[in-house]
Structure formats: structure tokens, C-alpha cells
Amino acid sequence: MNILGIETSCDETAAAVVKDGREVLSNVVYTQIPLHIPYGGVVPELASRSHVEKISEVVSTALKDAGEVKIDAVSVTYGPGLSPALIVGLNAAKGLAKALKVPLIPVNHIEAHLHTPFLDSEAKPEELTPILGLAISGGHTNWIDIPVYGEYKIIGQTLDDAAGEAFDKAAKLLGLGYPGGPKVDKIAKEWREKHSDKEMIPFPKGRPREGVSALSGLSAELCVSFSGLKTALLRYVQQNGGTEKLASEGEIPRIVASYQEAIVQAVADRTENALKKGDYKAFLIGGGVSLNSRLREVLTKVAEKHHIPILMAKPKYCGDNGAMIAALGYYRRNKMAEAFLIDVNPSLEVGE
Ligand code: KG4
Ligand code: ZN
Question: Which of 49, 60, 89, 200 could make an SS bond with 8 (beta carbons 3.0 to 4.6 A apart)?
């Protein structure tokens, strides 16, 4: 079964054709990053306009690259994401599904990120449950219990900024540009090659207090909070003469590596807690931040310690893409009878 997947939830216009939920026949991603660089973040209206301009070309290229195979269904992200951006993809998908006379399958963007380790892979998700999932991106940091494949329950999350947001905001403050995550990753890697962990600045490890209302009933030991870390970074920069002075002293890489380590260790610690609580057969990570090289290294060790495999996507499937939407669509194909009536849901929750 060949599914065309369409993704426009944020700043990537993407389409792909995937066979039977795993074999990627084509994958086209048009990134708008250069468009948003001058603003230091994604501008929803600009994103929407750019999706409108690019969607037809991206979809036709995906169909052509797949060898003009017969399309059996159209799958599309309907949330979470930016409302004006989601609308473009959903409307395009509705139109295409109607024209091709095939079913429309709306999917959750975060659940699709969690499916990325299975793209171009031999692993069968339904054989690995119960799975602990970590969705870690620019908008989300969620620990998710997957008892049976296709069922999702959030057991831990960030109380404020997502990990990717924390990377992007720090990069902005330190004058590294947008998006910050890849830049932080590279600078921290180079610094770590020449220095020891002892030289790091001890930034807070994002541990929320038990009992605070923002936990919304979740256990504090499975949640993170990055707002204190962000404030600690700001204070450190101010107390040490500001970004320009620190840059002239060559101090930025040490700050960047220390800040990244605080995020990575916070995520690793909460992951350990989640693995101790459940009897998981596998641990999987998805989302843009799952590309972070230090995070991959540390989480691999965590999974090894618990004697379970860690499933990570190939780097090309970590960011937003249509393949993950098409692939999850295959597993969701019988779920939505009223699909054509569905509207975008910018704050769609995992498991909803
Ligand atoms: O999944 P994604 O492409 O879009 C969302 O659904 O949010 O994730 C984008 C986020 C951005 O915050 C970006 O800075 C971060 O992923 N990111 C990284 C890396 N590559 C992308 N964060 C840390 N290290 C990276 N190598
Ligand atoms: Zn995403």
C-alpha cells in the first residue's frame, strides 16, 4: 500500500511516498529556515504563505521521485503546529485525496516523529512493545508510554520550554543565529574534544519541584523544566560582561557545551526514572532534537544500562518530513471514518 504523506505544521513544506509503513519511495523536504533567519524564529504568516507557494511543487516532485506509483491513501498532519501552516497541508491533502478518490488519513505530528526509527528499517514496532518513547523537538519534550503500538500515554513532559526551544533561545542570546540546536551541537562537540567535563559551568539540571501545579498530576521525577536553566544562562552572561565580551575571550564554546550538557543530563536522568518505573522492551526517540550527537551518545548508554535497544531515526528523518506522516498513516489507516470533516488542531495532544 502506497501512502502519500504531507507535512506543513511548521517551517518545512514536505511530502513523501511510503510503501507499507516503512519503505520510503520518495521524500521531499523544502525548508523555509532562510526565510525566518532575519526574525530569529518562525513567523507563522510567512510560513503559511511559503507553504502555499511550495506545496504543489513539493507534492509533484514526491510523486515523480516515487516513480508515479499508484497512490492508495493520502496522509496529513492536522496538529499540533501553527494553525495557518497546518491549514495549507490539510487543504492540499483533502483536495488530492478527493481527486484521487482515496482515503484521507489525518495524523498527529508528534506520534509521527515517534515512528521515524522504523523508516527504512527492518524493526517491526508491534513486536517491540511495551515501548518508552521520547518525543523531543522544537515544540515538545514528552516521555510517552506505548503499551501497544498505536496507543500513547504521556507520562512525563517539560513544564515550560521544549528542549529545542531551550537550545534555540540560548543560541539567540549567545549570538549564534537560528535555528540554534545544530549550531550548539557542533560547537559543543568541538569543545568537548579538547576539554574535560570538570571545566564545565554547573548549570541547573531542570528538576521541577514535586507538587507544583504545572505538573498537572504527572510525577516530578519524569518531568523537566528548562526555564531555570535559561535564567541561569542569562545571569551568567550578564555577570560576566555580556555576550560580546565573552565572545572576545573565546568563552562561548565552554558556555554552549555546559548548557547543552545540562539539557542532555536532565533528559537522561528523567529517561532513567521512566525506564525504572516500567518494564519496557525498547526505548525510542524522535523529533528534531534527537539529532543531537551528545544526546544520542548519552541516551544510548542509558538504554544499554537497562539492557534494551534504543531506536533512533536516520538523521535525514529526524527533522520534519512527509515520510513519517505517510508511514504512520499506514498504521492509522482504519481509524478515521470522518476524515474529510476534520479541521486542524494546533494544540493536538499525543494519544488524543
Ligand atoms: O522536529 P523539528 O524539526 O520541528 C518541530 O516539530 O519542532 O525540531 C526542530 C528543533 C529546533 O528547535 C532545532 O534547534 C532542534 O530541533 N535541533 C537540534 C539539532 N538539530 C535540530 N537540537 C539539538 N541538536 C541538534 N543537532
Ligand atoms: Zn516536528
Answer: 89
Supply φ then ψ for residue 126, to 5 degrees. -70, -15
| pLDDT higher than threshold 90 for residue 351 | no
Return mean pLDDT, the chain. Answer: 95
d(CA 283, CA 133): 6
pLDDT at 201 over 80: yes
**Which residues, by Cβ under 5 Å, contact ligand 2, an ion?**
137, 320
Count how many residues are written for the chain: 352
Distance 200 CA to ligand 2 centre (A): 30
Does residue 161 line the site of ligand 1, with CB under 6 A?
A: no
251 lines ligand 1 (CB under 6 A): no
245-261 tens-digit pLDDT: 999 999 999 999 999 99
Quick one: which atom of ligand 1 is closest to the CA of 81? 6
d(CA 7, ligand 2 centre) in Å:
9
Contact 271, 143 (CB under 8 A): yes
Ligand 1, atom 22, residue with closest C-alpha:
181
Q: Is 286 in the pocket of ligand 1 (CB under 6 A)?
A: no
> Is this structure's pTM higher than 0.90?
yes
Contacts of 79 (CB under 8 A, 6+ apart): 9, 86, 108, 109, 344, 345, 346, 347, 348
Q: What is the pLDDT of residues 5-42, one digit of tens each?
A: 999 999 999 999 999 998 999 999 999 989 988 888 88
With beta carbons less than 8 A apart as the criterion, state whether 138 and 36 touch.
no
